[in-house]
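SAMPLE LOG
Freezer: B-3
Tube label: C17
Construct: single chain, 108 aa
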Amino acid sequence: MTTRSLLLLGAVFAASLGCGSRGKSASSPCGPKGDVKHAAKTGAEGAKTGVTTGVEGVKAFGSATAGLVEGGSDEASERWREGKEKTRDTAHDGKEKTKREAHSEPCK
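STRUCTURE (predicted):
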């Protein structure tokens, strides 16, 4: 599976969670059209989170590789730990943004 396919699958999954978590029927105040818009916004936020976290992971790998060349395995390990923490923080921030979007007022 390509990265693009995985991101699309993640966005669809996040969108389905966003719509289902509200527990409203098809006769919600926004109607089906509003539900679709809300799902699209939630999915987009989830996809953005995935891309941003992936970029941070690539940066961590690159930094660790440069550390190996510049300072050996100790430097590489230190840079990897720093990058791992930053990637984790980015993922958690994105998770919160996606949750906020999923639970936001759908008729906005």
